[in-house]
Amino acid sequence: MQNTAASAWAPLRITIFRTLWIAVLVSNVGTWMQTVGAQWLLIHDTHAALLVPLVQTATALPAVLFSPLAGVLADVLDRRRLLLSTLLGMTAVGVALTVLTAADRMSASLLLTFTFALGAGAILIAPAYQSLVPDLVPRDQLRTAAALSSININLARAVGPALAGVVIARTGVTTVFALNTATFLVYAIVVASHPRLGGTAASPEGLLAGLRAGGRYVRHAPVVRRILLRASLFLVPGSALWALLPLVATRQLGLGSGGYGVLLGALGVGAVGGAVVLPRLRARLSNNAMTAVASLVYAAALVVVGLSHDLPLSLFVLLLAGAAWITFLSNVNASLQLFLPEWVRGRGLSVYQMVLFGGQAAGALVWGVVAESAGLVPSLLIAALVMAAGAATVVVWPLHDVDDLDRNLVRWPEPQLAFEPEPREGPVLVEITYTVAADKEQEFLQSMVQLKESRLRTGGTAWGLYRPAQGSRQFVEVFRVSTWDEHLRQHRERQTGTDLDFHDAAVALSDPPPTTRHYLAVDVRS
Fold first, then answer.
1. Contact 336/279 with Cβ under 8 angstroms?
2. Phi, psi of 481 (to 5 degrees)
3. Final residue in a domain of this structure, among 368, 395, 422
4. Are residues 163 and 68 part of one domain?
5. What is the pLDDT of residues 324-377, one digit of tens each?
């Protein structure tokens, strides 16, 4: 018991991680207060069944629109400056929101616009902050740090809504918006107090080049694609509970703003409890087993919440739902952080954020429309059925094991050429000729499958494998890179130990060792 507790909280012993964690907690509490305040401002509208879920949609939609940009900025800019400038911008938005609400000038459309703007700021912050975590804690504590980040969010979810309910009941929604604005300043002060935090990349890429490189990496990383798929299958049906809980509180349980805060608090408390016992679950269950169990528990919770009119029963089930929520999300988030190499960490995490928030935004919109037309209870039961069906697919689309992969960056020897090309010169064609014995041919072809993905995710734009029509034992691997600068990045800053393993496996099957040639495009225009 003692060792488990120590491992669960170990990253908080690191001063800089602990300080940032607390600052993020304060900001997250404010964010949840803001969400509850915005939803409660709309709860008595005649179209509340549609408008209330749209608060979640407006918060999450920026992730779909701006996540790739946020990821590139997190990878190529000074992360500390990025955090500071974004937090100050969010402070300005919060001040305007507070003043207009106090003046009774806040319409539903304007409220959703301000919510969208704050969501855009949050999505710029998320990959920058999360990209820092692997640099702040040892690799063997990364899963625990990811769980602590989930604890942070859900502890805020437990405290923020309950606090918002009390504040709304006593002083109104305006105070909630003002307190949320103050939390941005607290976060900014902490970031400003750590001048060594973050830092600019050693050789920053251009914005468009960085976007293309991040997109290529995700497309050609099966581990990342599988994580995103599993997250989508959980988040879209799972968002029904968060989106429709205000209606459950008012229509099924007859609660006011304080009661709604208590329901959200139960979800948060359950999530915190789930994170505390997560190391024990991880010792007993595989990642895929935890994924399936968490999904099925959450599906059962959707059914009970949809049918229950009993407050104690609903609170108990929401505790279980919160535990299932954090078990699933901290599991996939940690797997992603363990897999992503440093050079593309922000971009990879930003795509995950896009799925995380986009899945909830799309789900909230869908379940709001379903609830408007079919009713509250049917929409929750349909969501439960979709969640259970998604859990069953873990047999077909399991998560990959990433714990033992070598994600350290390695610098490969640079090409030796007769002249030095210009950085923007290209495209570049790389030709590698292997000689493979007949009894090793199948093994060689299998190794090429992994090497192909490695070439493409680190910068290649096209890849092919050829053999002479004359029937010799040679194979010619050819891949194209857009510029000479991009090819040098492959050698200097994008290869991991795992990529090196893929390369070495193919080279070991060639006798004699393979030969490499580089070709530069020739302009033949008149």
1. no
2. -125, 145
3. 395
4. yes
5. 998 898 888 888 988 998 888 888 888 888 888 778 878 888 898 899 888 899
Residue 273, CA distances (Å) to 53, 292, 321, 512 in order: 27, 19, 11, 59
Q: Can you give the CATH number for the domain in which 465 is found?
A: 3.30.70.100
Task: Identify the bridge partners of residue 464 per DSSP, sorted by sequence position.
Answer: 478
Q: What is the distance, to the nearest Å, from the Cα of residue 254 to the centroid of all Cα atoms in its chain?
A: 36
| Alpha helix (H) residue ranges in 197-284 | 207-219, 222-247, 257-284
Asked whether residue 355 falls in the same domain as residue 448, the answer is no
184 neighbors 69 (Cβ within 8 angstroms): no
* Cis, bond preceding 512 (omega within 30 deg of 0): yes
> N- to C-terminal Cα distance for the chain?
77
pTM over 0.70: yes
Query: Model confidence over 442-484: pLDDT tens digits?
Result: 999 999 999 999 999 999 999 999 998 877 889 999 999 999 9
Does 379 lie in the same domain as 244? yes
Question: Exposed, middle or buried: residue 418 (CB in 10 Å: 0-12, 13-18, 19+)?
Answer: exposed
Residues 376, 413 within the same domain: no
Q: Which residue's structure tokens are 């806040």?
A: 106
